[in-house]
Amino acid sequence: MAKLAQGAKYRGSIHDFPDFDPSQDAETLYNAMKGFGSDKEAILELITSRSNRQRQEICQNYKSLYGKDLMADLKSELSGDLARLILGLMMPPAHYDAKQLKKAMEGAGTDEKALIEILATRTNAEIRAINEAYKEDYHKSLEDDLSSDTSGLFKRILISLATGNREEGGEDRDRVREDAQVAAEILEIADTPSGDRSSLETRFMMILCTRSYQHLRRVFQEFVKMTNYDVEHTIKKGMSGDVRDVFVAIVQSVKNKPLFFADKLYKSMKGAGTEEKTLTRIMVSRSEIDLLNIRWEFIEKYDKSLHQAIEGDTSGHFLKALLAVCGGKD
Predict the structure, then answer these.
(1) Measured at the alpha carbon of residue 251, what is the angle toward residues 246 and 254, in degrees to the nearest 5?
(2) What is the SS3 assignment for 200?
(3) Which of 173, 192, 252, 279 is the most buried (most CB within 10 A)?
(4) Contact assessment for residue 287 and residue 14, using Cβ atoms and an 8 Å cutoff
(5) Rounded-to-integer distance, Cα 145 and Cα 129, Å
(6) What's the CA gap between 24 and 225, in Å, rounded?
(7) Alpha-carbon distances, residue 227 vs 173, 175, 243, 293 (angstroms)
(8) CB-based contact 61:25 (threshold 8 Å)
(9) Could you read off the pLDDT of 175-229 as tens digits, one per residue?
């Protein structure tokens, strides 16, 4: 697979199905679930080869043809990892992300990794859509739930990211040096400590959460020039806990978002046991955005294809469905 040049278009692995016929698809799914037992193969084959937009049309047609809710029928026919993957693919993206965020905050513990992975990587438009979907589905604002489920600086960073208010222009030359200086001070490399740590932390948060990606790339370059250190490495060394993790995620996402997800996918399948939830969440949410780029970064870094990694780590219908979403052996 040819490498996509830096700045080239991001590409997903799933696209609109040509010659799409939603009522025919609805009938195929209905027949696959009729009677005793279901034809899982037929279900996963159809759903993984349609785009999200097309899946929404199939849902509409299913309801008008059979007077039944396709999501509810799928839920009763499928179970476990396969159900999570197929039902995830059926949801509109913003509602899917909203559900993942809600799940990350439900119950006793908080899944900080999931909160970070979603909030640190979505675009302004995606974040705004997630906020709307969250309100619609849970009758509460995302901000309120984040507020009651996290604390301290970590909470403030997540809430800032959840406003979807990142600048979208190019770099601001005058501010590049200034921002790099703040980064150097907070990461305790600079010779001139100024101001107390908490006001510096706030400034650093504001820089990472509100400056445009293009601007931040310049800031990171300037940081290296000023300090001879890489900003990501310095955050890892000088900070700890959730604050470190969310700052690192933002930096990695700014540097190379597909690589960020390739790393997460690799880690979800490394060692004993698979983190199916992480694996599923990334495959579903990136399938129409940049999964081809993620596949490229994966093989480049780990010397094996995402296809091979999935094959070696999952089984059954879940494996088949994941490979269909992945879309190629590279």
Answers:
(1) 125
(2) helix
(3) 279
(4) yes
(5) 17
(6) 60
(7) 19, 17, 22, 31
(8) yes
(9) 999 999 999 888 776 554 555 677 788 899 999 999 999 999 999 999 999 999 9
Residues 6+ apart with CB under 8 A from 157: 205, 208, 209, 243, 246, 247
Give, in order, the Cα–Cα distances in Å from 138 to each of 102, 132, 134. Answer: 8, 10, 6
Any idea what the Cα angle at residue 304 is, between residues 303 and 308, rounded to 5°?
175
Q: Token pair for residue 69?
A: 């809710």
> How far is the C-alpha of 172 from the C-alpha of 216, rounded, in Å?
10
Report CA 271 to chain centroid distance, whole Å. 22
Is it the case that residue 2 has pLDDT exceeding 60? no
Over the Cα atoms of the chain, what is R_g?
Answer: 22
Average pLDDT score, the chain: 93
- The tokens for 88 are 């995830």
**Token pair 């005058």: residue:** 174
Distance CA 108, CA 175 (A): 42
CA quadruple 29, 31, 34, 39: dihedral sign: negative
* 290 neighbors 326 (Cβ within 8 angstroms): no
> Are 73 and 33 a contacting pair, CB within 8 Å?
yes
pTM (predicted TM-score): 0.93
